[in-house]
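Quick entry, no commentary yet.
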Amino acid sequence: MSRTDEILARLSQLHPKLIDLSLDRMLPLLERLGNPQDHLPPTIHVAGTNAKGSTIAYLRAFLEAAGKRVHVYNSPHLVRFNERIRLAGKLVQTEPLNAALEEVERLNGGDPITFFEVTTVAAFKLFAEKPGDYLLLETGMGGTFDTTNVVRHPLGTIITPIDYDHQAFLGNTLGEIASSKAGILKRGAKAVMGLQQDVARHVLERAAARLGVRPVWQGEDFHGSAQDGRLVFQDEDGLLDLPPPALLGAHQFENAALAIAAVRHFALPVDEAALAEGLRRVSWPARMQPLRTGVLRALLPDSHELWLDGGHNAHGVAALARSIAAMPQKPLVLIMGMMNTRQPEDILAPFQDLQPVSVMTLTIPGETNARDAEEIAGRARAQGFPAAAKSDLREALIEASKVEGARVLICGSLYLAGDVLAQNGTLPD
């Protein structure tokens, strides 16, 4: 176990619950650190159910193409905890990360605090100490009581599409979930809204009105779509004809448009050339990611395709299935694993019309809350899928190699995606 892992293991024992939404525990700790959250670069705060990470990836690419130093906070990580914290464009180095975690641990003095809270405090310390031009800050869950929601005066806020997820913590109705996400809106900060269902939009409109915020809305105030292989974006300031995003999938045109709208609405110093360059260079691992080389890829013939996606809720998996459906037809093999907070029927349903020739299920290694492969396979068979449990990725891929000219898709969980990248030797950077 690395020193970082040892520190993180200690921090994970400070609270009996993994998730306990509140700001009461971390605010005193931030105070002991000198309130680093009040000394950050101009911050763009992003909440929503899906597309948070992709939207931040586009914003980072645009700003870096314009020569700006960009801090980023994302979660969860795929392979290494360092992936959660990017300082001026680079993943945090292990030595300063360990120093920040241990300083926060010392100042906390053993008080109860969740893992996400204490590590977010360490991230704020690092962001405040390292010079940067912007901070792109992703919520962990919800908004109102999310650990990141201590930045009082963000430059702007973005709420990506809202759907059902984490109901045990955010509420059982779409309105309750939207109300939680709306908690990141701040008086005096501009806001950009992704495509929303009517119930969610109504809640967001009321929350914004209470704060005197007038958001711009995707599908109404700005539009972005694929036209002749290009991304065409339009808002009240005019039309942009841009290259297609490097991230694959039809939904990525919408995600890119949301980020472009934020650039224009927040008046970020990004010109059209930087937008075009950012679209070409954007990267976001485990989102419709083709694996063309690596240890696991070598188990398949050259005639096969291998794809990886971390989509883990119904909305995200539906977008994934639409992307696969838009590709030239090939025999589809699904390799799936998921956490026990996910229902196999929800993850499998979008693939029903694609008629996969095989569904192979896995128990995600090293995850105590992973759903059992045999259970997933049984529930898949009950839906009419040709499903079987496998002991590990290698067994599943060797079996997939026997399907002539197959398109192999590994999906269902970001935790599984991280394990795939680690085993394949494809580490995010």
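second:
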Amino acid sequence: MLRLQKHLSLRLQEHLLPLHRSASLIQLSLQRSLLSTGSATYSSPGHFAADDYLVSTCGLTREQAANAAKCISHWKSSSNADAVLSFLTGPALGLSNAEIALLVAKDPRVLSCSVDNTLRARLARFRSHGFSAAQISEFVRVAPCFFRKFNIDVKLGFWMPFLGSPDRFLRLVKRNFYLLSSDLDKVVKPNIQLLQECGLSIQEIGSLCVANPRLLTSKPDRIRAVLVRAGEMGVPRKTLLFRHAVTAVAGLCPETFASKLKMMANILGCSEAEVARMVQKNPLVLRRSMETIQRACEFLINVVGVGTNFILDKPTILMYSLERRLVPRHYVMKVLQDKGLMRKDHSFYTLAAISASVFCSRYVHPHKNVLPNLAAAYASGCNGKIAI
């Protein structure tokens, strides 16, 4: 009897084993199918497909989404992020799709913010400092990393009275976003005090720093060194030239400054001492590239026919565009001289220095009957279409 029972048991296992294997394969296939289906949704129970949401809803690239997803991958649904996006693109702010993508790529945690307690409150604080919705949108484009964590009242409470307007503030931030993070008491205010000690008013400092915003955010020791070097140029303090000197040396290390003086001396065929005296007359010449200065000097000497002393005495002429100002105005001068409508000894610097409207009223429009094509030729030259 025992032998019969054992035999029947073995036969039963032989029949059930294929069925068990088949059931296991079916179960595994079903599990894979369910996982695949779940990964295509944003908010399945207990799972949030962060990468897909960031790409298809927020407009990020796959690479950006991979970096940003770690900040939101623990979510169970997209409901809060949907509310944030709805608010940011709504009438209160009106961010575009591109602006949303930029903001989320730089600061994905913005999607975790409370609309009422954080975002709506931050917009109200911006507006309290004079920002319009368009200017707040501009701030998002310029400094997306700071939109959520920027200390609005502390920073704007200082910058708005100092700079005078949100537009000027945004201009500076575009060039130097360290204005948003620099320590006001340890960096910014000491730098302002150093500039005031050189005789600059708050208004002049504000204007100066539009072109040189790093004057406010660099370490005070560095700014002190810049002011010493500007003073060594021999330009009197409390003058516009001194502010130009500060602008010039702020962007140049001492080695580059010395190198530029030497190269300009070689271009002009004069001594470095003569170039130093020229730079005193217009320190901003140092901001021009050596290629630009060389081409301008070659044109002035070889085409216009002025000497080196002319350039040394009037360095501002090197600040004008060669193609769009010097060349077309010299063209008009030569045409008028060839027609006997201008003295041969007329100063080219006078023609170069006056505004475009005055130049046209004096030297182009009065001759439209005698030289009907002059205005068109001059206009074409101002667009860079006259060969040098």
